[in-house]
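Narrative summary of target 7.
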Amino acid sequence: MTNTEAQTRSKAGLTSRALAVFGVTFSFAAILLSGSILFFAPKGKISKEMDWDALGLGRQDWSDLHIVLAVLFIAFSLWHAALHMHVFKKLFLGSKMSPQGHRIEALIALTAVAGVVALALLQLPPASWLLDLNELFKHEFWIW
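Modeled conformation, tokenized:
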């Protein structure tokens, strides 16, 4: 590697794509952590009575953090989607390499999301099992 190549690599500036990818990734990881902690956290009244905390933060702190992280994740996700809209269009509409596009995959993903939403709203398994587990931790696990 020549000295010029080393200088070119080290002087690379910020890229919006890399920032969007890392923003989505890190905000997702943080919201996954806060959501996981909230999933197992006791109900608000119980957490206050027992002065519950996790990693030094109380239930309300985790809830507030989760909301802020969700907004950050949404912002990074929208930015990421806008930067990659051309890729999305090619996947959906097709390209020279894949003239048919990937409409079937898009339909499967859309159906999966709609199905999970319907299961959750109708409180049917397996979504209801997850909600029941959450209720168990909120209302019964922490009561002694």
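Strands lie at 53-54, 57-58.
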